[in-house]
């Protein structure tokens, strides 16, 4: 009981000391500043701040990027393909010798994308991402397996022509040729990529 009383007295003494200290601080402030008069509410200047209209800048940038990377099925690739035994493609700045080297396997294969079993939309997205990623990683020679169409209705290749159209539209693609028989033959393309800095 005596301990509780002593603790209560100590607590009361601490509170009283804190109150005296606060009172001294208030008096010191009054002596330093002088008499003060609180502002009335009417004396405050009204703030008319016009907030800027929100603009979705990031979304617009993302949409522009998507449009740049978009691959179209309606792109006419036939006029760009070299008429040889396997319909190859090269950019104007790429020599025919580069395509011959690509066809002979001069560059080692660094990555591969297999599109078997994918629907057209899935294949388009996968191919776009694959090319972008490989170019960013500095890969030079990759293979894209589109299949020969044996599992397709009518045994016609669905992705073969589309993959060529899509690749021509990617700026990172310098050229492509049909793969050698040992690399997939008519069911695959060997693709030469521009390295992105």
TrEMBL record:
It holds the Pfam family Smr. InterPro entries: Smr_dom, Smr_dom_sf. Residues 113-194 form the Smr domain. It comes from the Bacteria. This is Smr/MutS family protein. It comes from Roseateles albus.
